[in-house]
């Protein structure tokens, strides 16, 4: 069962990268630069994937 959960959700580092990416997108969405929110999520996910690849 542990392998299934790890495959489905990843580890703590993966969940934190996804959570921070969503947080960045929500913050940008509620800022004056709301038009950049559509770009903020993919860029932060790409940066998170680069971080995960190194660790």
Uncertain segments of ≥5 residues (pLDDT<50)? none
- The number of distinct structural domains comes to 1
Put simply, the count of helices is 3
SS strand fraction: under 5%
How many angstroms separate the termini?
25 Å
Backbone CA Rg: 13 Å
What average pLDDT do the residues reach?
88
Helix % is over 70%
Number of strands: 0
Structural class: mainly alpha
Shape, per Cα inertia axes: elongated
Topology, pairings included?
Blueprint: H1 2-9, H2 12-29, H3 37-54
Helix pairs in contact: 2-3
What would you say this structure looks like, in words?
This protein is mostly helical and 55 residues long. It contains 3 helices and no strands. The chain starts with a helix and ends with a helix. The relative contact order is 0.15. It has helices at residues 2-9, 12-29, 37-54. Helix 2 runs antiparallel to helix 3. The chain has one domain (1-54). The longest helix is centred in the middle third of the chain and has 18 residues, at 12-29. The chain crosses the membrane at residues 12-29, 35-53. Keywords: Membrane, Transmembrane, Transmembrane helix.
């Amino acid at each position: 069962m542990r392998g299934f959960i790890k495959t489905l959700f990843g580890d703590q580092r993966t969940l934190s990268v996804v959570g921070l990416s969503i947080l960045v997108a929500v913050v940008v969405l509620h800022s004056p630069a709301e038009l950049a929110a559509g770009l903020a999520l993919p860029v932060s996910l790409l940066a998170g994937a680069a971080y995960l690849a190194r660790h």
